[in-house]
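Note to self: keep these together.
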Amino acid sequence: MYDWANSVYNLVISSAIFPIFYDTVTTKQYLSEKPENIGKAWTSLDLDPSKLKAGEQVMVDFFGMHIPNSALMSFVLSASFLLVSFSSPFLSGIADYRGNKKRFLQFFCYLGAASCMSLYFFTDLMRDGLLEVAMLSLFFASIGFWNSLVFYNSYLPEIAPKKDMDKISARGFSMGYIGSMVLLILCLILIKTQDFPVQYCFLLVGLWWVGFSQFTYRVLPNTTSTRVKEKGYTWKGFKELKGVFAEFRKTRRLKRYLTSFFFFNTGVQTVMLMATFFAKKEISWPVKDGKVDDSGLIIAILLIQLLGAAGAFIMSRLSGRIGNVKTLGISIVIWLGVCAAAFVIETPVQFYGLACAVGIVMGGVQALARSTYSKYLPETEDHASYFSFYDATEKIGIVTGTLFFGLMEIGFDSIRYSVVSVAFFFIVGLLLLFRIPKDERSDLEGIYD
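Structure:
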């Protein structure tokens, strides 16, 4: 149910409605500041984003820097991931020592939900020239979402035996895809039929996230720690993390898996985060009543969500037959094909075909990556600390990927080169994946055979 609750952030804020809203708002601001438009209202029809010339970069001013709007979003997300990657290991050490990781899960859930709701004021802040303040909502929403996942993911080895981890991880991701799709469809119906302001969707995301997460909080235990609590828990938490890291360094299989995960997941997350901007800029969507019709892009995003739910179960079944590592390898090869195809596609129909491929492997690779890591863990009660390494690896990878993506766009003056360059991460991840040793622990044969 927490997947059902929090995945609305990933779809509505990261992928669908907010990126389109953000691109439209910043484009209008950019058009209003061009010399030929001085004196015109930035919300007027004369400044409709469809009037943007082909290939024209939308530039925004951010702390005195003049950069593309899509690059700014990637940099803000990179900064949030960087903070998460450094804070989550320390906080997880405290949570493991104190046995209160559910409290941390709740705190970051509420932070993320409140930040999503504050995006309601984004347009007003933009109109007042306060883009720097407006982007703080996106920054803290990202921190809330990703930091909560550290503590949420760490429950998997506590609630499921190894033989069921792939299935339960896949079920969680499928619930997330379906739940977020329900809210997105509801938002679209309200926008199209009830003249519903887009900003209200951000309020619905926060309420949905907080509301459905209460099911999770009612069921999960408050503590799993058997340690005697002492004063100075912050320092004790740090020592706890230090001890877990020393233990982690001795697990050759886990270290090599995380190294491979760093690269291929960097590619996955970067493509997922920036796909909407790519589609908005590079695909020739039809123009209706003088405006670009974004409904086709929304349909593609819904298609990805629907196939993502199916893909998680397909990959789970396949891993039961040929093993986790081989299944991950097949997924990465498909992702490489996605990057190559993105460089040449131009029409909505071509983008729909690409969306189908992305949907199948997106859910599968995420669910399988999480359950494979859970299977590799040694016998321990420090699950939050161990998953903080997983989370930090993921976030540092996203920082690397989004920063790389933004720099490639600036350097080549084209977002197409940014997408195809992401293939580098998939290639390295695939090569490292098959260097994972098969003989470290006798109770993990099922991962390979």
